[in-house]
Amino acid sequence: MTHKVVHGYLIVVLLAALAAAQTAEQKTSKYLDSIRRQPSLLLAFVREVPKGGDLHNHLDGAIYAEDLIDFAASDNFCVDRTTSRLLGAPCDSCEHYTPKPAIRCAYDDHILYNQIIDAWSMRNWRPGDESGHDHFFATFDKFGPTSHNHVAEAVATVINRAAREHVQYVEFMHTADGGAARKLGMQLGWDGNNDFAKMRDKLLADGLKEITAATSKTLAEDDARARLELKCGTADAEPGCNVTVRYLYQVLRGLPREAVFAQIVLGFELASSDPRFVGLNLVMPEDWYVPIHDFHEHMAILDYLHGVYPKVHISLHAGEIAAGLVKPEDLTYHIRDSVERGHAERIGHGVDVMLEQDPIGLMKEMAARNVMVEINLTSNDQILGVSGDDHPLPIYMKYGVPVAISSDDEGVARSDMTHEYLRAVESYHLPYTELKHMTRQSIEHSFLPGQSLWAETKGSFRPVAACAADIVTEEKPTPNCEKFLAANERAREQWKLETAFAMFEKKF
Fold it and tell me: What is the pLDDT of residue 20?
């Protein structure tokens, strides 16, 4: 054997050894890099990636318009042919151009059917007389009367889709009391001295405890019906049965302050008494008059009630605004105040962070406090026109702020978690390791109870001592680790994610 042949043979052996030494994660990462310019293969890859948790998901907005039409038809609603708003009976006939046909007429009228879908979502929206912001938020008033009647079907539909996209955990934002707290707050009014303690006591004495119990009962019934819809526990169980579901009580911050106060108190009460509710969030467009005008008061309410209920988790919409949408001075404090005065552990959107006072200092503070940002790329583009290099996702990552991809209102946006992940990979050339890191953060920053599987998450994810000897694969954990997982729900969900990653990476 010549020296040249021997040298070539050694190179082949060395390359083979290096290839064998590559971890499954490294091979998966290499594969992703090899298909970045092949959109179809990239989509297929991203669809199969384990996606952990969806922490920013409005239940009403997650329902696709086609399902909403079915809900409305079963409720015998009519529809305004001009505005596509749902209306009560009596309805006109299905003849063309009647102003108020029954919505079931749309099944035999493709023009009406498509018109409703476009009006109830961002499908076919184009910039023009109506902004993306206005079209997006106007959808909810159009289909709202029926979505509230079909919570169980909505949950079943959305988590089934989530399961097929390899999402294992969802926190739904949901105003589950049907407006009862709002009505009670309006009846009792506002204390002229802003005495939050007195107002809370009055609410609890005059019916909020009963509303809390009734809301828990209703949600339990809805959850049971959703599982029945999915055939859970049978041989024909749908994929959604494997998705863990929790709820954030959704406060409507655009309401009068006495109604907002009552809803916030209800959110704290539910999260203190019902394990299905893991926290609360304040929603509705941040730029509307009441949310802007009452913002500081809302933060003061949260500050007070956080002292009363210190263990209740808070996630807040903040920074879902952009230059030109509000006055410049209203862009400078929402995220910081939500963290410092509102006690937010997670921020939803955070798009205008670079317009905040001392944005770099703020992000360093968020990193130090371990405050996560729920990233919603599609809705940020549709509502605010912010995408690509204008979006702060890479800046948050640069300064060590935890981030995770979420869906926001996937039905209205006509998106899903696969395409949110795809958008992140394509827009920011994210490596597989960063995608995996974000996904792990989604469960790490969930509001599930119990300790984390991870002792350290800022650099590499290092497991706690009880599971330090375990290699997380499809195999069962060691007895010591199994005992730890049994006692900590969040750690169990994280182990489930690691098992999913191990199975996914074996393919490469």
Answer: 46
DSSP secondary structure string for all residues of 365-376: HHHHHT-EEEE-
Do 189 and 139 share a structural domain?
no
> Are 352 and 485 in the same domain?
no
Report yes or no: 427 and 389 within 8 Å, Cβ to Cβ: no
Q: How far is CA 123 from CA 115, 136, 382, in A?
A: 10, 10, 11
DSSP 60-98: GGGS-HHHHHHHHHHTT-EE-TTT--EEPSP-B-SSTT-
Nearest to 304 by CA among 206, 212, 195, 205: 195
User: Looking at 43-57, 118-132, 219-233, 309-323, which range is the least confident one?
Assistant: 118-132
- Domain check: are 172 and 291 in the same one? yes
The predicted pLDDT at position 2 comes to: 58
pTM (predicted TM-score): 0.94
Within 322-448, where are the H helices? 334-340, 359-369, 377-379, 393-398, 410-413, 417-428, 432-444
pLDDT 10s digits, 417-461: 999 999 999 999 999 999 999 999 999 999 999 999 999 888 789
Residue with token string 């979502």? 121
Reported as a single tens digit per residue, the pLDDT across 250-283 is 999 999 999 999 999 999 999 999 999 999 999 9
CATH number of the domain where residue 313 is located = 3.20.20.140
Residue with structure tokens 């958008």?
A: 423
Q: At what angle do helices 209-229 and 180-188 cross, to 10 degrees?
A: 170
One-letter amino acid for residue 115 of the chain: Q
Of the residues 448, 483, 499, the one at which a domain ends: 448
Q: How many domains does the chain have?
A: 3
Kindly state the average pLDDT of the residues 367-388: 97
Rounded-to-10 torsion of CA 135, 288, 247, 211: -120
**Three-class secondary structure of residue 316 per DSSP:** strand
Backbone angles phi, psi at 92, to 5 degrees: -80, 175
| CA separation for the pair 132, 116 (Å, rounded) | 17
Find residue 170's DSSP bridge partners: 54, 245
Q: What is the DSSP letter of 206?
A: I
- The whole domain housing 31 covers 20-38+449-508
Buried b (16+ CB within 10 A) or exposed e, 378-393: bbbbbbbebeeeebbb
Sequence-ordered alpha helix ranges (H) in 148-279: 151-164, 180-188, 196-203, 209-229, 257-273
